[in-house]
C-alpha cells in the first residue's frame, strides 16, 4: 500500500510541474538581420594609376607620312565624380586629370618632308583629362559600367634630333570605355578597373623655315588607357 501511495504522489508532482512549465512564457527567436543593398548615390574622390599606349604619325601637307609608331608610358592622377542610383541603375558623371610619361619616336624616310635625309620624329603625351558620363547596373556592391565623353590632352611633337622644329598644345577629342567597380566591406571605399579609348585632334607644327613647304602635322593621336583606381565616397 505504501508503494502505491508513493507512486500516486510522484505522478501528481510530475503533472503539477508540467502544468507550471506550460504556463511559462516562450522566449521569441531573434528576428533575422536584413542587410539593405549597397547604395551608390553620392559624391566621391579618388586616384588612378595605369598604362597608356597609342599611335602617332607625322605627315606633311603633300600627304607624305612617316610610318605609324607607338606612343606609350605610365599614367596616373585624380578623379572626382557623383552617382545617382535608381533601383539597380546607376547614372553619374566623372572628371579626371592625369600626368603622363607616354612618348615615342620613329625615323622618317628620306625626303618625306622634302628635307633630304630622314630625321627622327617624336610625339609625347604630357598629360590628359576627361569629363565623362557613366551608366551602370548595380549587383549590390558590384557595378559594371560604360562611360564616354569629352577628352583633352597636351601633346608635344618635333622633327629632328636635336629638334629642327617643334610644337606643343592642348588638343580636344573624345573618349569611350568601360569598367568594373566594387564597394569594399569597409565604409566609403571602393576599387575599380577601367579601360578608356581616347582620340585627340591633330597637332600642327611648321616646317616652312626648314624645307620651304607648308606645315606638318602629327596625326592619328589616339591611345588606350588601362588603369586601376580607388575611390572614397562621402
Task: Give a nutshell description of this structure.
By secondary structure, this protein is mainly beta.
Account of the protein in words:
The chain is mostly beta strands. It has a single domain (41-233), classed as Beta Barrel (Porin). The chain is built from two helices and nine strands; from the N terminus they run H-E-E-E-E-E-E-E-E-H-E. It has an eight-stranded antiparallel beta barrel. Strand 1 and strand 2 (69-86) form a beta hairpin. The longest helix has 22 residues, at 2-23.
Shape: elongated
Strand content: over 45%
CATH class term: Mainly Beta
Q: How big is the Rg?
A: 34 Å
Count all strands and give the number. Answer: 9
Q: What count of domains describes the coordinates?
A: 1
Order of strands in the sheet with most strands: 1-2-3-4-5-6-7-9
Major sheet size, sense and barrel closure: 8 strands, antiparallel, barrel
The oligomeric state of the chains shown is: single chain
CATH topology: Porin
Structural class: mainly beta
Please report the number of helical segments.
2
What number is the mean pLDDT? 83
Order of helices and strands: HEEEEEEEEHE
N-to-C CA distance: 84 Å
